[in-house]
Amino acid sequence: MRNAYKSLPPGGLAVLADRYLSDDGTKPLDRPVSHFVGSSFGLATRADMIEALNSCGFRAVKSRNVYRDVWYITGIKPKLKT
Q: Does 81 fall in a domain?
């Protein structure tokens, strides 16, 4: 996330898409998926991903369920003050 923040220009949009996010880690596929997913977040919850974007400096962080169990989480890098 920090690399994405550094790489994006001011006003840039970060978009995370995930099919296996859950709110509490208790969905039926959560445990098996955790063994196969190659992610630096391991098996993160939606709240974990939102916090990751916020902690890197992204603002206007939003999560949206786009289809069944597919989530988009977005955040905007603040524009420079002039």
A: no
- Whole-number pLDDT of residue 66: 87
What average pLDDT is seen over the chain?
81
Tokens of 31: 């445990």
SS3 72: strand
- Domains in the chain: how many in total? 1
**How many other C-beta atoms can be found within 10 angstroms of the C-beta atom of residue 27?**
14
Identify each DSSP E strand in the chain by its residue range: 13-18, 59-67, 70-76
- SS3 of 62, please? strand
Q: Domain of 41: which CATH number? A: 3.40.50.150
Per the model's pLDDT, the better-predicted residue between 23 and 45 turns out to be 45
Q: Which residues of 35-61 are buried (b: 16+ CB within 10 A; e: fewer)?
A: eeeeeeeebbbbeebbebbeebebeeb
